[in-house]
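FORM 7B: Structural annotation worksheet

SECTION A. Query
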Amino acid sequence: MKRVPWEVRAVFALLVLDGVAVIATYSRFPTRELYNVHHSGVAAGFGRELVALNFPFALVGIALVGLAWPRLHGRLRIAGVAAIALCAVVYFGVDQANLDAKPLNAVPALVLAVGASPERQPRGDRLRIALAAVLVFFCAPLIAAELGFFLDGVPFLGWFFETGRLAHQPGVAGLHHAVHHGQHHGWEATMLSLIALAFSRLPRPRLLDAYLALMLAYGVGNLANDDWLEQVVKRGWTSREMPSVLTPTVNWGWAGVLVGAIAVWALWFRQPRRTTPAPASPAISSSA
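SECTION B. Predicted structure
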């Protein structure tokens, strides 16, 4: 069995660290300081992490099955198809209006891609690093929120981002912190972008190229949506919100996600078709 690539191990480390942060934050804060949850305490923290294993991480499970697919045969391929189907339950298992854990949230499962080849496709690594750095920077208030603190008083970040200030949101009664404690869909989806960047370095079936490109564009779209609301609308600069791109729908936000995914696939993630060298002619072979 070949060594598990560091990209896959790094992704699982991210999942574990994110899970620890979610459990800790949702265990210690009252529900009024969080978003659309109705229980508190340690059990509630583990429940919220169960929901996170649906969204966004069940979508990562699909990519992991894709990476392992060339090395799955027979019954393992049937198991791979079943794992993808289980992960796809996330579409029905997560309701942003109620983020408490439900029995359906126990269905999706992650699958280890232990058979992935250690060969790499490092073309574009500088762009990967630069894009990842930009995404993490604009996720700074959302990462802080998941850890349970505001950026107020943090050099530069506390000036650049609104986090702890009480602000008004159009259509929502009362004043609320610009960035509520706990998980945000902008950070959840951005993790999908970071994982897509990591997995795009690994050998994979060609069909997975398009899926990873969509993961990357989807994460960027959700981060833009979240930051626009909390850093632009809540400052009173405009009352116009960006359309939601959490679930597939017909709006200009999803049009942008799809255009971005196509561009990433065509210009970056798409793998060149393998060509088989023509066999040498007998005349050339005999004279060699």
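SECTION C. Observations
Confidence is low (pLDDT under 50) at residues 97-118, 283-288. The CA atoms of residues 245 and 254 lie 6 Å apart.

SECTION D. Sign-off
Analyst initials: ____
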